[in-house]
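Thread: Modeling a multi-component assembly for a lab meeting

Hi all, long-time lurker, first post. My supervisor asked me to bring a structural picture of a complex we are working on to next week's group meeting, and I have zero experience with this. I have the sequence lines for every component (902 residues in total). Could someone generate the structure of the whole assembly? Inputs are pasted exactly as I received them:
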Amino acid sequence: MSAKRRNGFQMKTMAASTTNDDKLAHYRAAFEHAQASETLWRRFVELGLPARAQEAWHYADVGAFSRESWAMAAPADGAAVRSLLSELALDPATSLVLANGRVLDDKGVGSAAAGAAALHAHSLATLNEALTPRAAVITIAAGETKTLTVASLTLPAGDGEMAHPRIAIKVAAGARADLRFIFAGSAGKRYWSNPVVDITLGEGAEARLVSMAREGEQALHTGVIAATVERRARLILTELILGGRSIRRETLVDFIGEDGAADLAGAYLGGGETRIDVRSEVSHLSPRCRSRQLYRGVLDDKAFAAFQGRVYVAPHAQGSDAAQSTRSLLLQRTAEAAAKPELEIHADDVKCSHGATVGELDPDMLFYLEARGVPPAEARSMLVKAFIGEVLETIADESLRERNIDRVGRWMTGRGEGA
Amino acid sequence: MTAANPHETLEQIAGDYKYGFVTDIESELAPKGLNEDIIRFISDKKGEPAWLLDWRLKAYRHWLKMTEPTWAKVSYPDIDFQDIHYYAAPKRGKDGPKSLDEVDPELLATYEKLGIPLKERGILAGVAVDAVFDSVSVATTFKDKLKEAGVIFSSISEAVKEHPELVKKYLGSVVPYSDNFYATLNSAVFTDGTFVYVPKGVRCPMELSTYFRINEAKTGQFERTLIIAEEGSYVSYLEGCTAPMRDENQLHAAVVELVALDDAEIKYSTVQNWYPGDKQGRGGIYNFVTKRGACRGKRSKISWTQVETGSAITWKYPSCILQGDNSVGEFYSVAVTNNFQQADTGTKMIHIGRNTRSTIVSKGISAGRGQNTYRGLVRMLSGAEGARNHTQCDSLLIGDACGAHTVPYIEVKNPTAQVEHEATTSKISDDQLFYCRQRGLSAEEAVALIVNGFCKDVMLHLPMEFAVEAQKLLGVSLEGSVG
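Re: Modeling a multi-component assembly
Sure thing. I ran the full set together rather than chain by chain. Output:
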């Protein structure tokens, strides 16, 4: 069923790719250098470079892939890695660290072939698969529980370098995973990080993921988390987007067994000229699965953010229950937001809903707080913390949750006065 | 269905479609195909001035460079644009009929069957009809009464002759000739349509109505409607369609342009019940329509209400461009897809002026193997200070082989603008059905009742004449979807 659904998408992208030939040339060189298979190249060409005409990339910063020329980043400098790890307060001994797409110390590496079906229809995930043949592999055996922090760092030697980190996670039946991902990199350099997290949840497994994107202020980031959820498994994901020049985060969930569940939450803060592009695609391919989506964004200065969320219910996926909520706050006249909450439903016994709003901070609420002696800046900060707080509450770890609430407060310092 | 003899099958099909009959009137046909000569032929037939022919040719040349849009969630076999007659006119005398007596009786009989309130019935119903039969208007009633009020209500070809300055000023000002594939095609080959002009401060004394009929086999219909409401005026326009039975698909690419100036209001209501194809998905109308209204004036208002039950393929997005400060746009829609029907419909609300407001209520009903998509855009531009939008999209699924899809686009460039969007999808619950059945309703009556309840928010906005017909239509369209 899913193959059929994705075919339509591929067909439409083919026309776009033919005009992209010259733009693909430098990718061809990278494929050859990585000795990637011809099959992957053909798939990449067929899918084509992301273009605005492709619905999934409608709001993306597509020019970056075709206009700029990217070279594979060489292995990162050890001292730079250590310095960034300490800045992030991470212990390299207990964390899994990838630098420029390579797993440090060769801890747990394996094949890069895509597990999630959704990744086969994704152009940049295909690029990732081709250019990084060795993935970081995390396996959690049946009945086990594992807590781990994964850091993906991009530390290029110069501008115009790209890295394609790949992390494959297998959570066996009944196992529990508690994973934290941090995506970060060089402050001043123009680099492109294109990480793929490919996670499979076995029957009755549970995975709690917290992903934080804190890339450098010139960075381009296009990350995908693809989850394949088997029977009665549950995925709980919290996405935080806190830094970078142009960031796209995608979550693709395929329910391939009955009674699965996914709770997706995401928060994004954009200032300066940041461009944020959040996309989710939840595919109810089996009966009686439940999905919840909660996304909140705050935009200041000339930031732009788009949220595209798609819920797909396959024929016969009866009893599907999907709810989605997306809200954006604009703090400045120059900030912009777009939302495209999409439903595609082919079964009748379903409960699906979505809600979307875009607006400014409620003047009545601000007035209420100010009337009670709260200074305007603090009132705004309180309201934004509460707004983002809905998402942060989904983080089970209390100290991590508190740290991020403080981070929102710090981000708000001096913001939102011009609206 | 078993392979019965073809006549029997045809009868069965015809039996299902109440308005499926063909009136046999000699038509004057242009040869099949599309080229500059055909466009000159159409223009010449209609005795058009040079500027309009130039405009058509400009559109045609632009159209040659365009490709058919593929983004809509509909699929159909390729259309051969050279296999269509672009002009068909019922034969008539030199100067056209002066009164109803001169109208071909067979034509009048057609209207009788359709229940169009023409002649005495027209007077009783209080409705003026600019009946479009194929491509040329054959009769218009109530002209005198409207004339008294200063309202111009005529076919667009007549308006080109009698009010060229108005047509020239407004034609293509809302939907430019280069707008989209089908609108551009329409600009090149449109044959007729309706023109309405309501002068300053006039409240149009009656609901204006046009019935569209597609009659001659293989004639695409390319209607062009232009409605202009001057300062402080009001007009309500009803558009309703039924089409004869046809085995081959027929293309319909209409363009509707509305212009509302300061404090003017235009209410545009549609009941669309064209042939939807048979139960196996054969035949049916392709309905690719561009409808757009410009709220140019301050405090102007444009309201679209549509009940879409017919057509094999519907591709239609009645839109409002809210330019004037405090202007209002509304879109109320019911779309039903049964059997193999596909509808991709919705609206666009473009907020440009300050304090502009828009409301979208869309109710989609899918049954059988129908595919129903709501696709809408709400865009708040940076000058849309204090603008508001509320969108409610509900889908109802009947049966497990149909689909209901929602694709809203929300784009906001002004922080003081507020946009809210809600969507739900559900099915008719067994409890609701049981409750109705228990009280003696048949399964079909129960569905009709529940569906009418589901659509109430939209039906309320229909003019009374339409509301009754539309409610019946909903029931008829969903026949055979349960039980």
